[in-house]
Structure formats: C-alpha cells, structure tokens
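dumping this here so i dont lose it again. seq + smiles for LLGJG24Q
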Amino acid sequence: AMSSAAAGDCAVGPTESSVPLVSFLQRLQSEALKTFGPKSFDPKLYVDLPLKQDLVVTEEAFAKLQRVNGTITLSELEKFVNSFFGKVGDDLVYEEPKDFVLEPEEFLPKVKNPKVRAWALQVHSIWKNLSRRVSDDVREWPERHTLLPLPEPVVIPGSRFREIYYWDSYWIVRGLLVSKMYDTAKAVVNNLLWLIEVYGHVLNGARVYYSNRSQPPLLTSMVREIYMKTGDLVFAKKALPLLIKEHLFWNSGFHRVVIQDLQGREHSLSRHYAFWDTPRPESATIDKESASKLPSDSDKEAFYRQVASAAETGWDFSSRWMRDSSDLTTLSATSIIPVDLNAYLYKMELDLAFLAKKVGDATISKNFKEASNARLQAMTSILWNAEMNQWLDYWLSSCARDCEDKHQFDARNQNDKIFASNFIPLWTWNHKSDTSKHEIKVENILESFQKSGLLRDAGISTSLLNSSQQWDFPNGWAPLQHVIIEGFANSGSKAARSLAEDMAVRWIKTNYVAFVITGAMHEKYDVQACGKVGGGGEYKPQTGFGWSNGVVLALLEEFGWPQDRELEC
Ligand SMILES: OC[C@H]1O[C@H](O[C@H]2O[C@H](CO)[C@@H](O)[C@H](O)[C@H]2O)[C@H](O)[C@@H](O)[C@@H]1O
C-alpha cells in the first residue's frame, strides 16, 4: 500500500510556470494571513485583487512596508491594499443581459402551481445578478489582472466564484435556455471556445492561475443543447474545429491511458492530470499547510500535482481521490480512471459526430462515431462491474517507467466504493443501442442505485462516507442530481422515469425551502433533511448560485409541477 501521493502515482510530469503577477499576489496572500489571522481568511481574495499600477511599482511599495516581529502591521497592510489595488470583483462589471425579460414567453408551460411559477420566476431573475462583462481596465492593462480578457458577457456561479467556471457553465447554459436567453447562452460558450483558441483547452475558470488544468468537459454538450434550441448552424460550424481541438487535449499526452484487458485487447481511456506541482495560487496558504507534514520537496511537489488534478475533476475534494479518506496528502487523482470523465468524453464523441453531420462533414462524423464506439467498449471492459450493476472507477496500479506505458487490467483495481459518479454513464447511455449490445440492463442499474444508500430524503448524496470534504456525504450537488435524474428519466424504463421524477421533486423542494429560510440559492445542500444547506471543505459555503439555479429551472421544464402538489416538505 502506498502512503502518500508521491509513491508511484505518476506525479512527475510537465508543469506550467507561474506568471510574475500571481507569484507576487501569493506573497501578499501569505503576508495577509500572518497579519489578519486565519479567522474568515479567504486566500482566493488576494489572487483576485486587480492592480491599479504596474507590478514593479507595487512590488517596490510592498517591500517597504513596516513590519513588527516580521509581520506587516494591520494598518500598513490595509493602507497598502487600498492604495495599490482596486476592489476585488471590479474587474468584472455588472452587465444587464440584453435578452432578459421578467417573464419569458412560454416559460415553463408544464408548471401549473402558481407558487412554484412565482418562485421559478425569482430564480430566473437571478441571471441578472450573475451577469457580468470584463472591465475596460482588464483589456487595457491585462498584465495587471489575473482575470482573463474574455471577449463576451459572462454568467458567474456567484459569491467568491466571481469568474466563469467550466463545468458550472453547462448547467448555467441549461438554465439560460429555459429562460430563453439564447444570446447570453451563446456568449458563455463563445468565451469557453476563446479559451480553447488561446490555451488549447478550456480552463478550470477564467483566471490566469487556472490555466494549468481543465474541468469536466461539457462544452460539446453546451453547443449541442444550444443548437437543438436555436437551430443555429453557423454557431455550430464555428465551434466544431475548436471542439475537436479540445477532444485531442483529453485524448493525448498525460490525459490518455492505455489498458490491456484480459483478452489482450488494448483500450484507450482518459484521466485527470494538471500541469502544476506547486500550491494552487487561490488556496496556496491552505495547500502549504497541508503539505507541511510531507518529508521531502519531491513529496510536496507530487502532492501539489494531485491537489491541482483533483481540482480538475470538479470534485475538490473527495474521499474518491484519496487512498486514506482521513488524510488529504494521500490524494491520488492522477492514478484513477474516473467513470464520469469517460462518460462525458463518450458524450463528447457522440456530440462531435452529431455536430459534424449537421454541418455536412460526413468523414469527421464517422471518425467520432468510431471513437465513441471504442470508448463504449473500453468503459464496458474496464469500468463496468456486472455484479454491482454500476460503473466503477479504476485504480492504476503503477506508473511503470513513464506514463505512456500500457497498464494490464486487474479486476481487483476497480474501486467498489459507492459514489454518485458510478451512475453517471446512464446519462450518456443510448438505451436503444448500447444496452442490447452489452447486456447492461437499465432495470438492474435502477435496482443497484435504489440499494446503494445514495438516495436520501432531500436528494442524492455524493458518496456514503462523511470525510468532511465537500464532495462526500452528506452533500448533494446540483450537477450530480441533474445528470442522474436525466439519465434515469431518459433510460426507456417507466420505473426509472418515475424514480427520476421523485428525485427531482425532492431536490426542487429542498432548494425552495432553503431559499425561503435563507433568501438565497446555494452551491450545495445537505441531503439528509429538506431545506438544509451543505458544508465541509476548505471554503465557506457559497450562494448565488449558477448551477443550482440552472438545475431547478431544467427540472421544472422537464417534469413540470401539478397544481395540487405541495412545494413545502
Ligand atoms: O477555491 C477552491 C477551489 O474552488 C473551485 O471549486 C469549487 O467551485 C467551483 C465553482 O463552483 C466548482 O466548479 C468546483 O466543482 C468546486 O469544487 C475551483 O474550481 C477549484 O479549482 C478551486 O481550487
């Protein structure tokens, strides 16, 4: 057994170098922690501060600040921050979305209950609060900002997440489509496409310090959803080459892993891998503290890579990526072939085949259909577990000499712990073609889900273990509810559709009750009781909140709400 992330976890690899502005802001961040103390300290705030003057001038003034016993005094630091920086968040200015109307035409036609309609309209109106555009200052002085100069208006998750995020955007787009805000949805996507143009992949978020990694890849899904609603072929055509570039990012280099099955067939699957081996700038003080017990610099570097790679999974953090669920330094995200990532990539391949066909490129379409077939085979051979009737993450047993080496399949390496992600492939599953070929039966998956213990009074839990990390029990997250509900709803089974509706009702009710109690939509909820908000993890729970709003609207659109159904729990 390996005790730390360093042991054979494929953690030595390419790294990006930090830009001078981020290195300086990180120094400011660690000084600020000394001066202000840990109470209510959010390290991200410091790397988001916009500079008023050039870095050299700011650094000179910083070096001259007075210290007492090695610590900058409170008044000195406050004065310095006020004089040399704009307010955090000033780099993204409020922008009224042009396609927002108070009550869109044909809004949620299946919602018959007036109280639910009224609340849905309130949720819809939150898009106005979450809409921004990059300030002129960022365009004029990009080197003074960690925010990237995105070309079009954005919609943010909310609170400390004051920039665009990759996978959050999928559910934001789904919600915007329900709100008939097609131009705003296209603008969100155009920004993400711009990131591919500039960096070769979609970044975790639109800050320069997020460029070392991506997040769960759902951009083709966004383009496809928008195309389905608008029929805009020009939009789809423009997106296609960049989406193909993104596919290559996830299927080459350190993201690609080859595994040979017991019949000797080779399968290519993907994993998460960040190009980073130092603390995450937005959480550097926390990462350094976590790494402090590791013995050597190389152990620390390996740990930092695992931390950043776990952030790429979107599940930061979770016992899912840890060898010992009580010890964060055992994070080993690069040693796992994740079920959800490969399900999203399977969908990416199907989406690319679909979009290519629409724009008239039969060869590209055929190539991606073949790629999707190959991934389906790979997922069935390596990740599917026929006894448990669910897909399981696969642990890579060694890194061998380098990460390009072939791995040999060993059934004991499937992780038999229950996570919500074990059921995500159902979302991308074609119940007409995929089931018959592989003897994977929706009814069996449904039974295994019902027995799993994941479904609680107020939604689907992320896992069964309370590790105090935020992507574990008892937290329920909107994106996971949505893909599992949609997976069962569209699975072709009546029983599965009925469970899906039941889960949608639980989720909508808990969001509503928490909204009434707190006046806000939340980033995560506690699935143990209706109206309870989530917790755990390294930052204070946030409100806003992009994906929660999007999922409520999307579920209401799909299932509606009868006149006589209560909204309270
Ligand atoms: O600042 C800590 C981490 O915060 C982000 O992760 C969380 O919020 C994101 C925005 O809602 C969400 O996409 C992610 O799933 C959450 O875990 C950020 O993405 C991390 O990179 C960052 O280190």
